[in-house]
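Archive record:
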Amino acid sequence: MGNTGIVDKFTQWGFQRGQRLCQRSHLTRGKMTLSCACVSLKPSRKGGFQAERLNMFDTNFETEFEAQGSGVTAVLDAGESPAVPAEVAGSAAEDGELLDAYSDAVVKAADAVSHAVVNIEVHKKIASRGEGRAGSGSGFVISPDGLVLTNSHVVHGASRIEVTLDDGRRPDAYLVGEDPETDLAVLRIYAPNLTAAKLGESKSLRVGQLAIAIGNPYGFQYSVTAGVVSALGRSLRASSGRLMDDIIQTDAALNPGNSGGPLVNSRGEVIGVNSAVILPAQGICFAIAIDTAKYVAGWLIKDGKIRRSYIGVGGQNVKLHRRVVRFHGLPVETGLLVVSVEPQSPAESAGLQVGDVIVEFAGQPVASIDALHKLLTDSRIGARTPLTLIRHTEKLVKEIVPRE
């Protein structure tokens, strides 16, 4: 190779490749001619490098180099600068513009929502030690009069709740209501001049859309992580055991203490409530869709809870025999096996027995426990509802009146 090294495309990374080649040749000082007229070098499977032909460029110049420690530094004459082909310079400029646009979107979205994000510290009473700090999380203001939305698991069982605003204020706070089945809770704080976050819509989300997770885990300053919407319509099991639907999956990392913070789009609109992260997996985080959060928050503000009906049975999912499915023309091949009936419950009043398999409720097929949960809404409270079950091999229809 002598004192001549050929590198591809007059860019900084191309010159650095030439530096590495010079280091391997133990060169200390001399002339190096840079030209993109011939070849580029790439690693060979058999070791070393192999040449690959590239397009010809007319630019050609000489530069000196000298060794400095472990690196090789170019020494140019006065007024000289490395010539960069126009197409390479244009590509680099476009990449820079894209990066600037991405950064600008994240910065603007964070600025739009950050003043609404709060830190939440929870204190619980412990029998042996009295009251003590039990954890922390995040939340965000959803109305100027002091309503704050967060996760139920952040504030559940709290004897005292402390909220810290982005400007350091620590107003009085109390729990308005929570719903563990959807992992949502609403707090009320008393403070003037509050900034509310703008709520968007999750029904218009698309996979690949920019997603920015914001939290205030320590009460000093908000933290921001960015990613994309990885998947929509996921299901996640709540702490109560009920299945939560319409969950957003994102790769925007959730730092410790970010639970309850907002997930926003590039316009600074809240599209979800950060809820959970799968610890063994890398970059798999979940948020409750804002459409669900708005519905639940409305009922929590009105009633302090979400009203749901229940029938008083414990069960498990079972597969039905194919002969039974065909004989009765059932719409499902699985059902809910009753393993327990609560005393004085709607199920006992309707005559349900242990061993029955529920296959239909209110005219809708019941293939699992989760399917029955979805049907036991507040509209069924006090309403006489038909329930279809299989007892041994016989198909029976009972009338049941769910209670709250």
In short: Residues 12-84 form one domain. The first helix runs from residue 12 to 24.
